[in-house]
Design a protein that fits this description.
homodimer, alpha+beta, BirA Bifunctional Protein, domain 2, Rossmann fold, 2 domains, nine-stranded mixed β-sheet, seven-stranded mixed β-sheet, 11 helices, aa-tRNA-synth_II (chains A, B), proline-tRNA ligase activity (chains A, B), protein biosynthesis (chains A, B), Anticodon-bd_dom_sf (chains A, B), EC 6.1.1.15 (chains A, B)
Chain lengths: 458, 458
């Protein structure tokens, strides 16, 4: 169990002698994350993840990893330092390189602080004994920091210079089987984004500097998005305006019911063909034993960006709201105020709840706000701003030992007055919902509300 | 369950036109890791972790993390990029800086690719509202890549330029409470190193460039170690020869029974005092509400180095041997050879084993060597080189349906001939032993052997 009194949540202050430079734009969720001490701005465009937000990051890593493994992905780690020589071979240092961090070692050899790893993973395959067609398809992924020296960092974690990515690379024998892999990984992405329960738009995208033939982007729709998307209300077709240049009617169904929305790109998939395998010489041995270029795909998910963008979409100006599977804690339990007349009786209920709720949702998922020197009101306000899915208040009414009542707040803004067993039932429903999401069983918001049948809403 | 036919283990090859430069020394375990395709050398001094070794890394991360949390540690992430300005303030750029990777962003601002994070974490605390004495002690840790441009990289993962570290930083109100924290974290380290079951030596160490007053190092004893340690056979005292300069008798008990051994430093703890908090202005508010310098400690564990050094100590020239809690898989199951006359009957046993063994040790802990086109001998040889704690061979004798016998090999070099239920019992014993280790219950090697009472050793 976690105690609020011990958790490090450093509030934002401005040092006395500091000259305040507003060097970056903050969106509403990023402002909340900073004010609440979940994320702290480091040097311009880098961020420090504080303990509560770290829990969310770790949950996101686990969720992404489990989906990648289900899609046949094998986890590896490639060094952050990639020799620039590899990037020269693929031509990716020919254009604008101002976004790259480059560093030389003591011998003068130059490295990139990798913004992505197509070259590194392809070179790795090129320098092992060629694998047989029988070992393909091969899907390798990693989860780690990436670097991009952005001209303009914005919206905190949403566009940072150092960020956490999951990157997967696939290797196939032919364009045809590579397309099968591409479809399969896209299905894993669809599943993941459904698990996160944030509405997403999947669009046909430009392949751009990455190269290749087919590409899709996953976007969260938000006014702070940096991409213009075109959505067809009739058939559901969606495209990045970069690709689908302002058509009068839908390129797919001809309907004129097109609307433009702003999107935050949270994931991207590419069918790469032999763009990297050919110049770097990564081959496999085909059925006749001859070496042949591997056909590749690559698939990115911005871990920190998914969290930041999901918060931006779900939160209000004053309260964070998390995807259920990414909330730092499932339940916050606010104990009675010190010195209040109900304290002794209320603490009996509090202790029983700590035990029982912890057993239902897992003790690690329960945050005990034990700062009893603070009023319940102050702690409840903070709990609401932090957006815990369920907050249980052990207040004055809980001290009626014959029929104690608890106030339960959900992150959707509902408030219930519940007895002990109804409270546990609500916690159990939340945990069950999380488990079905983890299994990939999706239930619509409406069905979920219908199925909630305990207590009465205040 | 994991199938050997699908796991990416790229064997080492030398490209046709490459000029072979032996740029680095490889120790025996590092040679095995490379030859078996568990680790691949990237650019000089950087390493690519392949899927099977990645499982070991992830297990080590989980184990270290759980011990740090038990010691009150809260997990965070600090950026890899640390502004050099912070290091100027603490004087750590005044000496030899040739080991640092430094990089400038597009605005010309200079950063270190952090080799450690004392400055960054202290500056983070200095720029939040001062915490109250009531919130202390505070212990923050992270697990991530570190960078050091070594003059000479050696022994693969054991001394690499980019490596994985756990670094914890503690903050206290006084030297006295800081010493309590120091003792507590050292106890967590002792526990961790006992869980790994590799003999370790804890020595009094020099504080060196890190500063501070008290320091201990944890070493694995190995001929490839880079430190000279002095050990007293009488009282157990141990010191790094840097600190304890060749005394005639033990500084602790006066015995003359001193021996010198070579050690690989796998962890290091420091009591830092205010060496960092003072120049960077990191304070807390004391009982009278006045700001006062935080008293710090720092505690590192080289994740990738622990794995590499443990393998070096435990392995032979031809076979890897892992700490039980870090083996990529608990059990390897080798299926019958394709086309052998026993294949149909043996596959009945094989399928039952897959189900039952997987249920006992966890399906993710079972590696199924399904490459039936290869002989059992060839696959067994590879399994032994990979050092799986238990390898079960479904060979000719397993096809006697009335009383099938299985050959079971342990990584200690024992071979048993067991029936079905005895095999499951051995797997269960292994899993139980792992669970007791995880709980921190330690049993000596001898007791463990005594408690093993199944079958007969071949």
């Amino acid at each position: 169990m976690n105690k609020a009194s011990r958790i490090f949540c450093p509030a934002l202050i401005t040092p006395k002698n500091a000259v305040v430079k507003q060097t970056e734009q903050l969106s509403r969720s990023q402002k909340l994350l900073t004010e609440l001490g979940l994320v702290k701005s480091g040097s311009n465009g880098t961020y420090q993840i504080m303990p509560m937000a770290q829990r969310s990051v770790d949950k996101c890593i686990d969720l992404v990893q489990s989906n990648m493994q289900q899609a046949g992905g094998q986890k590896i780690t490639l060094p952050i330092l990639t020799p620039t020589g590899l990037w020269k071979k693929t031509g990716r240092l020919d254009g604008d390189i101002s976004e790259f961090y480059m560093v030389r070692d003591r011998s003068g050899k130059q490295f990139l602080m990798s913004p992505t790893h197509e070259e590194a993973v392809t070179a790795m395959l090129a320098t092992t004994s060629p694998i047989s067609y029988r070992q393909l398809p091969l899907r390798l992924f990693q989860i780690g920091p990436k670097f991009r020296d952005e001209l303009k960092t914005r919206f905190g974690l949403m566009r940072a210079k150092e960020f956490l990515m999951k990157d997967m690379y696939s290797f196939d024998v032919s364009e045809e089987t590579a397309m099968e892999t591409y479809t399969l990984v896209n299905a894993a992405y669809d599943r993941l984004f459904k698990q996160l329960e944030v509405p997403f738009v999947k669009v046909n995208a430009a392949t751009g500097i990455m190269g290749g033939s087919v590409s899709h982007e996953y976007h969260y729709v938000s006014p702070v998005g940096e991409d213009n998307l075109l959505q067809c209300s009739s058939c559901g077709f969606a495209g990045n305006s970069e690709v689908v240049k302002a058509p009068a009617s839908c390129p797919s169904c001809n309907s004129s019911d097109l609307k433009e929305v702003r999107g935050v790109e949270v994931a991207h998939t590419f069918l790469l063909g032999d763009k990297y395998s050919k110049p770097l010489g990564a081959t496999f041995l085909n059925t006749t034993g001859k070496p042949q270029s591997l056909v590749m795909g690559c698939y990115g998910i911005g871990i920190t960006r998914v969290i930041a963008a999901a918060l931006e979409v779900l939160s209000s100006d004053h309260e964070l709201r998390w995807p259920k599977l990414l909330a730092p804690y499932d339940v916050c339990l606010i104990g009675p105020k010190q010195g209040s007349k109900e304290q002794p009786e209320a603490e009996v209920i509090e202790n029983e709840l700590l035990l029982n709720v912890g057993e239902i949702c897992g003790h690690q998922e329960l945050l005990h706000d034990d700062r009893k020197e603070l009023t319940i009101g102050k702690r409840l306000l903070e709990a609401k701003r932090l957006g815990h899915p369920l907050t249980i208040v052990v207040g004055a009414k809980s001290a009626r030992l014959d029929s104690p009542k608890l106030e339960v707040h959900t992150s959707k803004g509902e408030t219930y007055e519940l007895d002990f067993s109804e409270t546990l039932k609500l916690v159990a429903e939340h945990s069950q919902h999380k488990k079905s999401l983890e299994r990939g069983c999706f239930q619509s918001e409406t069905e979920e509300s219908k199925s909630r049948s305990v207590g009465h809403q205040l």
